[in-house]
Amino acid sequence: MKYLSAKQILTIPTFITLSLWLLSKKGIMDVFDDPLRSLSQIFSLIGLIYMMISLILSTRRRFIEDGIGGLDKVYEMHHIVGSLSFVLLINHPLLLAIKALPQAALVSQYLLIGNYLPYNLGVVSLYIMVLAFIFMVFVRLPYHIWLKTHQLLGFAGIIGSVHALLITSDISSYFPLRLWMIVWIFFGSTSFLYIFFYYKWIASVYVYEISKIERLLDVVNISAKPTKRKIPFVPGQFAYVGFKDINLGGEQHPFSFSSSPLEDEVRFSIKMLGDYTVKLPLLRKGTKMFLKGPYGKFGDVYIKGKRPLVWIVGGIGVTPFLSMLRNEQQLIEDRAIILFYCFSNPEEGMFSDEIKQLTENKKTIEVHEWCSTQRGRFSVPKIIEILEKYDKYDVQICGPGPMMESLKQQFEEVGVDSERILFEKFQIL
User: Fold this and answer.
1) Residue 334 neighbours by CB distance under 10 Å
2) Residue 226 dihedral angles phi and psi, to the nearest 5°
3) Host domain of residue 242
4) Degrees, nearest 5: CA angle 110-111-116
5) Is residue 368 a contact partner of residue 339, using CB atoms and an 8 Å limit?
6) Predicted model pTM
7) How far is 253 from 75, CA to CA, in rounded Å?
8) First and final CA of the chain: distance in angstroms?
9) Which neighbouring-strand residues pair with 279?
10) pLDDT of 336-383, one tens digit each?
11) CATH number assigned to the domain comprising residue 308
Protein backbone atom coordinates (compact mmCIF):
# COMPACT_ATOMS: atom_id res chain seq x y z
CA MET A 1 0.00 0.00 0.00
CA LYS A 2 1.21 3.49 -0.88
CA TYR A 3 1.26 5.92 2.05
CA LEU A 4 1.34 9.70 2.03
CA SER A 5 4.71 11.42 2.35
CA ALA A 6 5.50 14.82 3.88
CA LYS A 7 6.10 16.18 0.38
CA GLN A 8 2.65 15.06 -0.77
CA ILE A 9 0.90 16.42 2.31
CA LEU A 10 2.59 19.84 2.07
CA THR A 11 2.46 20.39 -1.70
CA ILE A 12 -1.22 21.27 -2.14
CA PRO A 13 -1.55 23.59 0.94
CA THR A 14 1.67 25.35 -0.08
CA PHE A 15 0.50 25.83 -3.68
CA ILE A 16 -2.94 27.14 -2.64
CA THR A 17 -1.45 29.49 -0.05
CA LEU A 18 1.03 30.96 -2.53
CA SER A 19 -1.70 31.30 -5.18
CA LEU A 20 -4.08 33.13 -2.83
CA TRP A 21 -1.25 35.37 -1.62
CA LEU A 22 -0.38 36.32 -5.22
CA LEU A 23 -4.06 36.98 -6.00
CA SER A 24 -4.23 39.33 -3.00
CA LYS A 25 -1.70 41.63 -4.70
CA LYS A 26 -2.70 44.42 -7.10
CA GLY A 27 0.00 43.34 -9.53
CA ILE A 28 3.17 41.32 -9.83
CA MET A 29 5.28 44.42 -9.14
CA ASP A 30 3.85 44.51 -5.60
CA VAL A 31 5.85 41.35 -4.99
CA PHE A 32 9.17 42.55 -6.42
CA ASP A 33 9.08 46.19 -5.28
CA ASP A 34 9.66 45.13 -1.67
CA PRO A 35 11.27 41.65 -1.80
CA LEU A 36 12.12 41.38 1.92
CA ARG A 37 8.56 42.19 2.91
CA SER A 38 7.19 39.77 0.31
CA LEU A 39 9.48 36.99 1.50
CA SER A 40 8.50 37.70 5.11
CA GLN A 41 4.82 37.44 4.21
CA ILE A 42 5.33 34.16 2.36
CA PHE A 43 7.27 32.73 5.31
CA SER A 44 4.58 33.75 7.78
CA LEU A 45 1.68 32.31 5.77
CA ILE A 46 3.32 29.00 4.87
CA GLY A 47 4.95 28.71 8.30
CA LEU A 48 1.59 29.13 10.00
CA ILE A 49 -0.04 26.54 7.71
CA TYR A 50 2.78 24.09 8.49
CA MET A 51 2.35 24.77 12.21
CA MET A 52 -1.34 23.87 11.95
CA ILE A 53 -0.55 20.70 9.97
CA SER A 54 1.99 19.75 12.64
CA LEU A 55 -0.65 20.14 15.34
CA ILE A 56 -3.12 18.03 13.37
CA LEU A 57 -0.50 15.29 12.99
CA SER A 58 0.00 15.19 16.77
CA THR A 59 -3.57 14.06 17.51
CA ARG A 60 -2.86 10.31 17.10
CA ARG A 61 -6.09 9.94 15.14
CA ARG A 62 -6.47 6.53 13.52
CA PHE A 63 -7.28 7.81 10.02
CA ILE A 64 -4.04 9.84 10.02
CA GLU A 65 -2.00 6.81 11.11
CA ASP A 66 -3.65 4.67 8.41
CA GLY A 67 -2.96 7.26 5.71
CA ILE A 68 0.71 7.73 6.59
CA GLY A 69 1.60 4.16 7.52
CA GLY A 70 2.07 4.01 11.29
CA LEU A 71 2.27 6.34 14.26
CA ASP A 72 6.08 6.40 14.15
CA LYS A 73 5.92 7.76 10.61
CA VAL A 74 3.23 10.25 11.65
CA TYR A 75 5.49 11.61 14.38
CA GLU A 76 8.50 11.63 12.09
CA MET A 77 6.45 13.75 9.69
CA HIS A 78 5.25 15.87 12.63
CA HIS A 79 8.90 16.64 13.50
CA ILE A 80 9.79 17.47 9.90
CA VAL A 81 6.78 19.75 9.34
CA GLY A 82 7.17 21.36 12.78
CA SER A 83 10.84 22.10 12.13
CA LEU A 84 10.05 23.68 8.76
CA SER A 85 7.35 25.75 10.43
CA PHE A 86 9.77 26.94 13.11
CA VAL A 87 12.38 28.04 10.56
CA LEU A 88 9.83 29.91 8.43
CA LEU A 89 8.08 31.65 11.34
CA ILE A 90 11.32 32.70 13.02
CA ASN A 91 12.50 34.35 9.80
CA HIS A 92 9.25 36.28 9.37
CA PRO A 93 9.99 38.99 12.03
CA LEU A 94 13.73 38.85 11.38
CA LEU A 95 13.26 39.79 7.73
CA LEU A 96 10.94 42.63 8.73
CA ALA A 97 13.51 43.85 11.28
CA ILE A 98 16.29 43.75 8.67
CA LYS A 99 14.09 45.69 6.27
CA ALA A 100 13.44 48.32 8.97
CA LEU A 101 17.13 49.03 9.60
CA PRO A 102 18.48 51.51 10.60
CA GLN A 103 15.18 52.77 12.14
CA ALA A 104 15.54 51.47 15.71
CA ALA A 105 11.94 52.23 16.70
CA LEU A 106 10.58 50.22 13.78
CA VAL A 107 12.98 47.33 14.43
CA SER A 108 11.84 47.17 18.07
CA GLN A 109 8.22 46.95 16.90
CA TYR A 110 8.97 43.56 15.38
CA LEU A 111 11.18 42.22 18.14
CA LEU A 112 10.12 43.87 21.43
CA ILE A 113 6.90 44.32 23.39
CA GLY A 114 5.30 47.69 22.67
CA ASN A 115 1.92 49.43 22.81
CA TYR A 116 0.16 47.67 19.94
CA LEU A 117 -1.53 44.38 20.96
CA PRO A 118 -1.48 42.57 17.55
CA TYR A 119 2.30 43.10 17.23
CA ASN A 120 2.81 42.13 20.88
CA LEU A 121 1.09 38.80 20.25
CA GLY A 122 3.52 38.12 17.42
CA VAL A 123 6.50 39.00 19.62
CA VAL A 124 5.22 36.77 22.46
CA SER A 125 4.71 33.91 20.01
CA LEU A 126 8.27 34.41 18.73
CA TYR A 127 9.79 34.32 22.22
CA ILE A 128 7.80 31.22 23.21
CA MET A 129 9.01 29.37 20.12
CA VAL A 130 12.64 30.36 20.72
CA LEU A 131 12.42 29.42 24.41
CA ALA A 132 10.83 26.04 23.62
CA PHE A 133 13.48 25.36 20.97
CA ILE A 134 16.33 26.14 23.40
CA PHE A 135 14.93 23.81 26.07
CA MET A 136 14.12 21.02 23.61
CA VAL A 137 17.47 21.02 21.80
CA PHE A 138 20.14 22.38 24.14
CA VAL A 139 18.96 21.48 27.66
CA ARG A 140 18.71 17.88 28.84
CA LEU A 141 15.40 17.65 30.67
CA PRO A 142 13.36 14.80 32.22
CA TYR A 143 10.79 13.56 29.71
CA HIS A 144 7.71 15.00 31.48
CA ILE A 145 9.30 18.49 31.56
CA TRP A 146 10.56 18.17 27.97
CA LEU A 147 7.01 17.28 26.91
CA LYS A 148 5.64 20.46 28.49
CA THR A 149 8.21 22.60 26.68
CA HIS A 150 7.21 20.85 23.44
CA GLN A 151 3.58 21.77 24.13
CA LEU A 152 4.61 25.42 24.36
CA LEU A 153 4.92 25.36 20.57
CA GLY A 154 1.19 24.69 20.35
CA PHE A 155 0.44 27.75 22.48
CA ALA A 156 2.85 29.76 20.33
CA GLY A 157 0.97 28.63 17.24
CA ILE A 158 -2.40 29.74 18.62
CA ILE A 159 -1.04 33.11 19.80
CA GLY A 160 0.67 33.61 16.44
CA SER A 161 -2.60 32.78 14.67
CA VAL A 162 -4.46 35.50 16.58
CA HIS A 163 -1.64 37.89 15.67
CA ALA A 164 -2.00 36.98 11.98
CA LEU A 165 -5.76 37.56 12.02
CA LEU A 166 -5.61 40.90 13.88
CA ILE A 167 -2.86 42.78 12.03
CA THR A 168 -3.47 44.75 8.84
CA SER A 169 -2.12 42.51 6.09
CA ASP A 170 -3.02 40.52 2.98
CA ILE A 171 -5.08 38.23 5.23
CA SER A 172 -7.27 41.10 6.38
CA SER A 173 -7.61 42.69 2.92
CA TYR A 174 -8.31 39.61 0.77
CA PHE A 175 -11.25 37.48 1.95
CA PRO A 176 -10.38 34.17 0.16
CA LEU A 177 -6.94 34.20 1.79
CA ARG A 178 -8.46 35.12 5.15
CA LEU A 179 -11.01 32.28 4.91
CA TRP A 180 -8.27 29.81 3.89
CA MET A 181 -6.13 30.75 6.90
CA ILE A 182 -9.11 30.70 9.29
CA VAL A 183 -9.96 27.13 8.24
CA TRP A 184 -6.40 25.93 8.91
CA ILE A 185 -6.18 27.86 12.18
CA PHE A 186 -9.48 26.32 13.32
CA PHE A 187 -8.39 22.74 12.64
CA GLY A 188 -4.90 23.28 14.03
CA SER A 189 -6.11 24.98 17.21
CA THR A 190 -8.84 22.40 17.88
CA SER A 191 -6.25 19.65 17.33
CA PHE A 192 -4.00 21.21 19.96
CA LEU A 193 -6.89 21.57 22.41
CA TYR A 194 -7.92 17.98 21.70
CA ILE A 195 -4.51 16.52 22.51
CA PHE A 196 -3.87 18.88 25.43
CA PHE A 197 -7.20 18.42 27.22
CA TYR A 198 -9.50 15.78 25.75
CA TYR A 199 -7.01 13.05 24.85
CA LYS A 200 -5.23 13.18 28.18
CA TRP A 201 -8.25 13.32 30.47
CA ILE A 202 -11.33 12.08 28.61
CA ALA A 203 -10.40 9.95 25.58
CA SER A 204 -11.07 6.21 25.72
CA VAL A 205 -8.79 4.39 28.13
CA TYR A 206 -8.50 0.71 29.00
CA VAL A 207 -7.95 0.02 32.68
CA TYR A 208 -5.83 -2.94 33.71
CA GLU A 209 -4.46 -4.23 37.00
CA ILE A 210 -0.90 -5.52 37.32
CA SER A 211 -0.89 -9.26 38.02
CA LYS A 212 2.83 -10.02 37.79
CA ILE A 213 6.18 -8.21 37.63
CA GLU A 214 9.30 -10.05 36.59
CA ARG A 215 12.79 -8.61 36.14
CA LEU A 216 15.33 -10.04 33.69
CA LEU A 217 18.59 -8.09 34.06
CA ASP A 218 17.68 -4.63 32.71
CA VAL A 219 14.26 -5.67 31.35
CA VAL A 220 10.99 -5.64 33.28
CA ASN A 221 8.10 -7.90 32.24
CA ILE A 222 4.81 -6.40 33.38
CA SER A 223 1.68 -8.57 33.05
CA ALA A 224 -1.80 -7.19 33.72
CA LYS A 225 -5.42 -8.26 33.53
CA PRO A 226 -8.33 -6.06 32.40
CA THR A 227 -10.72 -4.68 35.01
CA LYS A 228 -13.47 -4.36 32.36
CA ARG A 229 -12.76 -4.05 28.63
CA LYS A 230 -9.82 -5.67 26.87
CA ILE A 231 -7.81 -3.47 24.54
CA PRO A 232 -8.40 -4.75 20.97
CA PHE A 233 -4.81 -4.88 19.72
CA VAL A 234 -3.22 -7.08 17.07
CA PRO A 235 0.26 -8.66 17.19
CA GLY A 236 3.01 -6.12 16.58
CA GLN A 237 1.12 -3.11 17.95
CA PHE A 238 1.86 -0.90 20.94
CA ALA A 239 -0.07 1.26 23.41
CA TYR A 240 0.58 4.40 25.40
CA VAL A 241 0.85 3.18 28.98
CA GLY A 242 0.49 5.02 32.29
CA PHE A 243 0.35 3.81 35.90
CA LYS A 244 -1.47 4.94 39.03
CA ASP A 245 1.72 5.22 41.02
CA ILE A 246 3.17 8.21 42.85
CA ASN A 247 6.73 7.35 41.76
CA LEU A 248 5.83 7.46 38.06
CA GLY A 249 3.30 10.30 37.98
CA GLY A 250 0.78 10.56 35.16
CA GLU A 251 3.15 10.19 32.20
CA GLN A 252 2.20 8.02 29.23
CA HIS A 253 4.87 6.17 27.26
CA PRO A 254 4.67 3.91 24.18
CA PHE A 255 5.43 0.24 24.82
CA SER A 256 4.98 -2.75 22.50
CA PHE A 257 2.82 -5.67 23.55
CA SER A 258 4.90 -8.81 24.08
CA SER A 259 1.75 -10.90 24.58
CA SER A 260 -0.78 -12.23 22.10
CA PRO A 261 -4.25 -10.66 21.78
CA LEU A 262 -5.60 -14.20 22.20
CA GLU A 263 -4.33 -14.33 25.79
CA ASP A 264 -6.38 -13.22 28.79
CA GLU A 265 -3.68 -10.84 30.04
CA VAL A 266 -1.42 -8.31 28.38
CA ARG A 267 2.33 -8.21 28.88
CA PHE A 268 4.87 -5.46 28.22
CA SER A 269 8.60 -6.19 28.21
CA ILE A 270 10.35 -2.89 28.90
CA LYS A 271 14.05 -2.09 28.93
CA MET A 272 15.16 0.22 31.73
CA LEU A 273 16.81 3.02 29.76
CA GLY A 274 15.82 6.39 31.23
CA ASP A 275 14.56 8.29 34.28
CA TYR A 276 11.07 6.84 33.87
CA THR A 277 11.71 3.20 33.01
CA VAL A 278 14.28 2.66 35.80
CA LYS A 279 11.41 3.20 38.26
CA LEU A 280 9.24 0.43 36.81
CA PRO A 281 10.55 -2.27 39.22
CA LEU A 282 8.98 -0.18 42.02
CA LEU A 283 5.52 -1.08 40.71
CA ARG A 284 3.53 -3.59 42.74
CA LYS A 285 0.96 -6.25 41.99
CA GLY A 286 -2.53 -4.72 41.98
CA THR A 287 -1.39 -1.30 40.68
CA LYS A 288 -3.76 0.18 38.11
CA MET A 289 -2.43 0.47 34.56
CA PHE A 290 -4.03 2.68 31.91
CA LEU A 291 -3.72 1.89 28.19
CA LYS A 292 -4.52 4.13 25.23
CA GLY A 293 -4.46 2.80 21.72
CA PRO A 294 -3.68 0.46 20.16
CA TYR A 295 -1.31 1.96 17.59
CA GLY A 296 1.13 0.79 14.96
CA LYS A 297 1.14 -0.88 11.54
CA PHE A 298 4.21 -3.03 12.12
CA GLY A 299 2.24 -6.29 12.36
CA ASP A 300 0.11 -5.71 9.25
CA VAL A 301 2.36 -7.74 6.96
CA TYR A 302 2.27 -10.63 9.46
CA ILE A 303 -1.52 -10.51 9.71
CA LYS A 304 -2.45 -9.78 6.09
CA GLY A 305 0.56 -10.90 4.06
CA LYS A 306 1.16 -14.27 2.39
CA ARG A 307 4.90 -14.25 1.65
CA PRO A 308 7.51 -15.87 3.92
CA LEU A 309 8.74 -13.53 6.65
CA VAL A 310 12.28 -12.63 7.64
CA TRP A 311 12.37 -11.26 11.19
CA ILE A 312 15.49 -9.48 12.43
CA VAL A 313 15.49 -8.70 16.13
CA GLY A 314 17.93 -6.44 17.97
CA GLY A 315 17.84 -6.05 21.76
CA ILE A 316 14.49 -5.04 23.24
CA GLY A 317 13.14 -4.89 19.67
CA VAL A 318 12.17 -8.50 20.37
CA THR A 319 8.87 -7.43 22.00
CA PRO A 320 6.58 -7.20 18.91
CA PHE A 321 7.99 -10.51 17.65
CA LEU A 322 7.19 -12.20 20.97
CA SER A 323 3.61 -11.01 20.50
CA MET A 324 3.51 -12.46 16.99
CA LEU A 325 5.15 -15.73 18.07
CA ARG A 326 2.68 -16.14 20.92
CA ASN A 327 -0.13 -15.51 18.45
CA GLU A 328 1.41 -18.04 16.02
CA GLN A 329 1.33 -20.67 18.79
CA GLN A 330 -2.46 -20.60 18.76
CA LEU A 331 -2.90 -20.70 14.97
CA ILE A 332 -3.39 -23.88 12.97
CA GLU A 333 -2.13 -22.50 9.65
CA ASP A 334 1.68 -22.41 9.52
CA ARG A 335 3.69 -19.75 7.70
CA ALA A 336 7.37 -19.78 6.79
CA ILE A 337 9.30 -17.50 9.17
CA ILE A 338 13.06 -17.06 9.55
CA LEU A 339 13.96 -15.27 12.79
CA PHE A 340 17.38 -13.82 13.54
CA TYR A 341 17.72 -12.93 17.23
CA CYS A 342 20.72 -10.59 17.58
CA PHE A 343 22.48 -9.57 20.79
CA SER A 344 25.96 -8.46 21.83
CA ASN A 345 26.73 -11.15 24.42
CA PRO A 346 24.95 -14.32 25.65
CA GLU A 347 23.56 -12.57 28.75
CA GLU A 348 21.61 -10.14 26.56
CA GLY A 349 19.77 -12.97 24.83
CA MET A 350 17.38 -13.16 27.76
CA PHE A 351 14.40 -14.21 25.65
CA SER A 352 16.21 -17.13 23.99
CA ASP A 353 14.45 -19.75 26.12
CA GLU A 354 11.04 -18.22 25.54
CA ILE A 355 11.60 -18.09 21.77
CA LYS A 356 12.73 -21.72 21.73
CA GLN A 357 9.67 -22.75 23.71
CA LEU A 358 7.34 -20.85 21.38
CA THR A 359 8.88 -22.30 18.21
CA GLU A 360 9.81 -25.88 19.14
CA ASN A 361 6.58 -27.32 17.70
CA LYS A 362 6.49 -25.02 14.67
CA LYS A 363 8.49 -26.67 11.89
CA THR A 364 7.99 -23.72 9.53
CA ILE A 365 9.70 -21.28 11.94
CA GLU A 366 13.49 -21.25 11.68
CA VAL A 367 15.39 -19.51 14.51
CA HIS A 368 18.99 -18.28 14.30
CA GLU A 369 20.69 -16.67 17.30
CA TRP A 370 23.40 -14.16 16.46
CA CYS A 371 25.79 -13.19 19.25
CA SER A 372 28.04 -10.48 17.82
CA THR A 373 30.92 -11.11 20.26
CA GLN A 374 31.10 -14.66 18.91
CA ARG A 375 30.04 -14.28 15.26
CA GLY A 376 30.86 -10.66 14.45
CA ARG A 377 28.50 -7.92 13.43
CA PHE A 378 25.22 -9.08 11.88
CA SER A 379 24.79 -8.19 8.19
CA VAL A 380 22.69 -9.23 5.22
CA PRO A 381 25.61 -10.68 3.16
CA LYS A 382 26.31 -13.09 6.04
CA ILE A 383 22.80 -14.57 5.92
CA ILE A 384 22.04 -14.36 2.21
CA GLU A 385 22.60 -18.12 1.73
CA ILE A 386 19.93 -18.85 4.34
CA LEU A 387 17.45 -16.60 2.54
CA GLU A 388 18.12 -17.96 -0.96
CA LYS A 389 15.62 -20.79 -0.43
CA TYR A 390 12.84 -18.20 -0.84
CA ASP A 391 12.15 -16.34 -4.06
CA LYS A 392 10.36 -13.42 -2.39
CA TYR A 393 9.90 -12.54 1.24
CA ASP A 394 8.91 -9.63 3.48
CA VAL A 395 11.38 -8.29 6.04
CA GLN A 396 10.50 -6.97 9.48
CA ILE A 397 13.24 -5.36 11.58
CA CYS A 398 13.03 -4.01 15.11
CA GLY A 399 16.04 -2.78 17.05
CA PRO A 400 18.29 0.27 17.44
CA GLY A 401 17.71 2.98 14.81
CA PRO A 402 21.16 2.81 13.14
CA MET A 403 20.86 -0.98 12.90
CA MET A 404 17.48 -0.77 11.15
CA GLU A 405 18.60 1.89 8.67
CA SER A 406 21.78 -0.04 7.85
CA LEU A 407 19.97 -3.35 7.30
CA LYS A 408 17.30 -1.68 5.18
CA GLN A 409 20.02 -0.38 2.87
CA GLN A 410 21.71 -3.79 2.76
CA PHE A 411 18.49 -5.55 1.81
CA GLU A 412 17.84 -3.01 -0.94
CA GLU A 413 21.35 -3.66 -2.28
CA VAL A 414 20.54 -7.37 -2.70
CA GLY A 415 17.33 -6.57 -4.58
CA VAL A 416 14.62 -6.46 -1.90
CA ASP A 417 12.07 -3.74 -2.69
CA SER A 418 11.96 -1.01 -0.01
CA GLU A 419 8.19 -1.46 0.40
CA ARG A 420 8.83 -5.03 1.61
CA ILE A 421 11.18 -3.86 4.42
CA LEU A 422 9.27 -2.74 7.49
CA PHE A 423 10.32 -1.30 10.83
CA GLU A 424 9.07 1.10 13.48
CA LYS A 425 11.12 3.95 14.96
CA PHE A 426 10.16 4.00 18.62
CA GLN A 427 12.87 6.53 19.45
CA ILE A 428 10.72 9.28 17.84
CA LEU A 429 7.53 8.53 19.74
Assistant:
1) 11
2) -70, 140
3) 206-295
4) 55
5) yes
6) 0.85
7) 14
8) 23
9) none
10) 899 999 988 888 888 999 999 998 888 889 999 988 888 888 898 898
11) 3.40.50.80
